[in-house]
Each structure stands twice: as structure tokens, then as C-alpha cells.
Amino acid sequence: MTEKPTVLFVCVHNAGRSQMAAGYLRELGGDRVEVLSAGSEPKDAINPVAIEAMAEDGIDIAGNTPKILTVDAVKESDVVITMGCGDACPVFPGIRYEDWDLTDPAGKSLEEVRVIRDEIDGRVQTLLDDLTGQGESADRSEASGSGRTLK
Question: Is 11 one of the catalytic residues?
């Protein structure tokens, strides 16, 4: 893996799960990681309920645009996290793949999307700790006393 790993989050529409995960990793990882997201069948816009749920945690994904998954994006990545996109993601040797079984937030209420958001937050923290070898995100969570790591 490169010194500064690149992580690609992939879901079908690149409008909910992958955008939320990318938002958390950008916020928590700062300049320690490169973050990409894409979809096998991207929508025209980000899910407004996902935007609202992330805003509650201080992360703005409203300006993001869903992007199409490309072979180059996969090849550029050290880690590819898939979320319900099945076989749409090409597989290359030397790249770490994980499939996160997460509910699609499309058509869900804010309360339901909060649950998905919180699960994504925890998974991203674990991923970041693994990639950087630092327990920084867990330490920040304990210090806040809330279980949340963001400002």
C-alpha cells in the first residue's frame, strides 16, 4: 500500500452510502488519505436525506456530484469498499476489497438514514485506524464522551 492510501467507495447510485462514507473519511482522515467515490449507475444528485443526516454531524456533502465508476478509479485505489453494487466493480490483483452490507438510504426517512449514517461512521473509523495504524479516531470519540468523533 502507498504511503498515502487511496480509498474508493462504490455503491450503485453514488448518491447515499458511498457519499456519506467518503464524507466521513475526508473529515476524519484529512491529508492522510485520498478519498474517491463512484457508482455503477449514478443518479443525477445526492440523496437530500443523506445530505441532511450528514449535516447533523457537521459534514457537508451537498456540493458533491454522483460519478460513474471507472476502471481507472479502481486501478488508482489501494482499497475499494463496495456497498451493494454486486459484480459491477472490476477486480485487480494487489487491491484490497471489502464489501460493506449496508441498507440503501434511498426512500428512507431521516431517522432510518441516521442509523445507516452512524454505521458508516463506525466502519470508516475502523478502516482509518487500520490504514494509518493509529487509534486517533477512537481516541477522539472517547474524549468527546458522545461516541461521535466530529466537531
Answer: yes
Q: What is the CATH number of domain 6-144?
A: 3.40.50.2300
Q: Name the catalytic one among 8, 10, 11, 53.
A: 11
Domain ranges of the chain: 6-144
89 is a catalytic site residue: yes
Helix (H, G, I), strand (E, B) or coil at 81: strand
Radius of gyration of the chain (CA): 14
pLDDT tens, N- to C-terminus, the chain (151 residues): 558 999 999 999 999 999 999 999 999 999 999 999 999 999 999 999 999 999 999 999 999 999 999 999 999 999 999 998 766 777 888 899 999 999 999 999 999 999 999 999 999 999 999 998 865 444 444 333 333 333 3
Catalytic residue among 89, 95, 128, 131: 89
For residues 39 and 15, is the Cβ–Cβ distance under 8 A?
A: yes
Q: Is 85 a catalytic residue?
A: yes
**Backbone phi, then psi, for 104, in 5-degree steps?**
-70, 125
Amino acid at 26: R
pTM assigned to the model: 0.86
